[in-house]
Amino acid sequence: MESEHIWRQWLGLHSEWARIPAKLQITHETQFERDLGITGDDGSELLEAAQKRFQINLAPDETGYRRTFGLGPNEYLFNSEGFGLGTATITLFSNHSVRAFTVGELYRALVKAQEANTRQTGSA
Question: Domain residues of the chain, as ranges?
């Protein structure tokens, strides 16, 4: 099954990129921030690495990742990196939220984007 192949490739990229120990079980429900400690710029770099590896674009237009992941106006995939007094103050007084972004969500977006690429390539 093609999606199973993509899942194995995704796990390989993720484990390699984030240097995740082989003994750590990653499932569709694994959260990037809570379970793997991936946040901020590291999260952005992981998205870029996934796009490069799978030769897809998860942010194909001006909406960026918002449409791909169904993000609301003040919703984000990752917190900013670091936590200091300035970050705490901004977080306290802002109305943004960070989704509990999972490995499965990114995997589904990868599959969907790859299928879209295949349809475009096939019809070109």
Answer: 2-20+29-117
Summarize pLDDT for 24-79 with one digit per residue, the tens. 788 899 999 999 888 999 999 999 998 998 899 999 888 889 999 999 988 999 98
Q: For the CA atoms of 48, 60, 90, 30, what is the dihedral angle to 10 degrees?
A: -50
Structure tokens at 78: 């990752």
Closest CA to 79 of 19, 47, 34: 34
Query: What average pLDDT does range 93-116 have in this prediction?
Result: 86
User: What radius of gyration do the chain's Cα atoms show?
Assistant: 16
What burial class does residue 102 get, using C-beta atoms within 10 Å of its C-beta: 0-12 exposed, 13-18 middle, 19+ buried? Answer: middle
**pTM exceeds 0.90 for this model:** no
CA dist list (Å): 27 to 18, 78, 123: 15, 19, 34
